[in-house]
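Exercise: predict the fold of this chain.
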Amino acid sequence: MPIHEIRCAGSSERESWDGYVSRQPEASLFHLFGWQEVIHGTYGHKTYYLMAVRREAQAAVRENSSLLAENAVGILPLVHLKHVIFGNCLVSLPFLDGGGILAGSKEVEESLLCEAINLGRKTGASRIELRQERPLASCDEVSVFCSETSQEPMQVATRSDKVRMLLDLPDSSEMLMKSFKSKLRSQITKPLKEGLTSRTGGVELLEDFYKVFLVNMRDLGSPVHSADLMRHVLSEFAERSRIFVIYKSQEPVASALVIGFGKVLRNPWASSLRKYASLSPNMLLYLRMLEFGCDNGYRVFDFGRSTRGEGTYKFKEQWGATPAPLYWHYISLDGKPRDPESSGTERFEKAALYWRKLPLIVTKIIGPSIRKHISL
C-alpha cells in the first residue's frame, strides 16, 4: 500500500497547493493553482487538480487544513478538453508550455500518473497529454505499474522537438545593453530612430495588446484566444504579470504579456503587425521585456516555445538565448498509437489557409469558440 493518498484539490485548498509548489525547486509558473481559475473561468473546461498527501497525515489534515501544504508530496493539474471534432483528452496544461507532474519521488509520480489514467477512463478520454520540462521515467513503464487486463493496451509517445529559449539576465538593464553584440545593438536602436515608443502596464493596456494579437493570429491562420484569457491572467497573477505595447504614433504595432515566477520571467504571448516589420517593433518590444526582467530581480528570461531552426528560434537565438528541451508525453487510452510530431496545428494546415482570408471581425467573434478546444 502506498504511503500517500490522492485527492482532488478545490479552490479552498489553493493556498496549500501553492505552498507546496513554492517549495519545489523543479516547480514552474504553470503549476500554480491560479491557472485553474484562468482556464475554467475563461472557457469553462472542467479541471482536476490532483494532490498526493501523506496517508499518515490525512486525519490531521482533516482536522487542520493548514497542514495540507506541508504534507503534500506531489501534484498534477489536469484540464478536460472534450469536443466532437477536436477530441476528448486530459491535458496538463493546455495553451501553455508546461504543467505536468510535480512529485517528490518516483513512487508519487507513478501514483499521480495512475490516477490520471483512471480519471481518463472514467471521463472517456482517448489520451492524456503531460507537458514536462524534464522527461518522466514513469511514462516508459506505465503499462507495467498501471495496467488493467480488461482495458485497451496503452500506447505512449513523447514529443521533444519543441524547446524553451532561455536567456540568463544580468543585474541591471545597463549591463544588459553592454552584453549585446554591436549588430544587435544597432537593430535595437532602429525602432527608436523610427520614432516608436513603448508603454508598460496592466489591464489598462489589454485592449491595445489584443488589437495586435488578434491581427497576428489571423495572419498566422490560427483561431485567436478570447481576450478574457489574458484578462483572467492579469487578475489571477496581478503582481506577477505585465503587458508591453509598442506604438507608432498612437497605433499599437507590437505587444506582449509576461508573467514571473521565482527568478524566471516568462513570455507566453507576443505579437507584432507584419505591415510594420520594416520598423523592427519586435526589437524594441523584447528589449523592454528584458530590461524589466533585469530591473525587477529576475535572473532568467523565457522567450517561450520554439522549434529548432525556425524563424522564431533564430530570432530568440540572436539575443543570446539557448534551448532547453520540452518533453510532451502522450498516453493513448484507446489503444490507437499516435505520432506526437503530427499532433497539433499541422492537422489543420488547409483550414489555416482559409482562416487567413477571413475578415478580422469574423475571427474575433468565432475564433475563441474554436481556440478553446485546441490544446496547443
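Check your answer against the key: The radius of gyration is 21 Å.
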